[in-house]
Amino acid sequence: MRLLLDTHAFLWWLFGDRKLSTRAQMAVADAGEDDVFVSAASVWEIATKFRLGKLVIAEPIANDIEKSVTSQNFLGLPVTLLHAQTAGSLPGPHADPFDRMLIAQAMLEELTLISNETLFDAYGVKRLW
């Protein structure tokens, strides 16, 4: 199963935070190399929230997110033009641009989204929690 980590799931994985469900932890731990992705949108979200002082605890990650991704054998998922078009065209009231991008990427790349966000279910993405 190919996985896409929501931003909070990525951070909770790195911190060993118990907020990450056991099911999610097992899926990530059991995934093979090349099967766990971190979106460029999540990197943007982490850097933005850190800069705004909303994610102070993530300073070591925010200062070198690429290292944090590769040290876990995760892969970065770039934002393509089609991802952006799809995210911008998604119906519904969900306004968070980072979440909309993750939804679009999960749909287009056929990835299972690791997230506790039940709102994602309305978009028909495969979600594991």
Give a structural overview.
With 129 residues, this protein is of the alpha/beta class. It has a single domain, classed as 5'-nuclease (Rossmann fold). The chain has helices at 7-15, 22-30, 40-51, 59-63, 65-70, 81-89, 97-109, and strands at 3-5, 36-39, 75-77, 112-114, 127-128. It has a five-stranded parallel β-sheet with strand order 3-2-1-4-5. Helix 3 (40-51) runs antiparallel to helix 7 and helix 6 packs across helix 7. The radius of gyration is 14 Å and the shape is globular. The mean pLDDT is 94.
Give the topology.
Layout: E1 3-5, H1 7-15, H2 22-30, E2 36-39, H3 40-51, H4 59-63, H5 65-70, E3 75-77, H6 81-89, H7 97-109, E4 112-114, E5 127-128
Parallel strand pairs: 1-2, 1-4, 2-3, 4-5
> What would the principal axes of the Cα set say about the shape?
globular
Beta-strand residue percentage: 5-15%
Q: Strand count, sense and closure of the main sheet?
A: 5 strands, parallel
Element-by-element helix/strand order: EHHEHHHEHHEE
Order of neighbouring strands in the sheet with most strands: 3-2-1-4-5
What is the total domain count?
A: 1
CATH homologous superfamily placement: 5'-nuclease
Helix content: 40-55%
The end-to-end span amounts to 14 Å
Number of helices: 7
CATH class: Alpha Beta
Task: Tell me the total number of β-strands.
Answer: 5
CATH architecture: 3-Layer(aba) Sandwich
Gyration radius, to the nearest Å? 14 Å
Q: Which structural category do the helix and sheet elements fall into? A: alpha/beta
Could you tell me the mean pLDDT?
A: 94
Spans of 5+ residues with little confidence (pLDDT < 50)? none
- The CATH topology turns out to be Rossmann fold
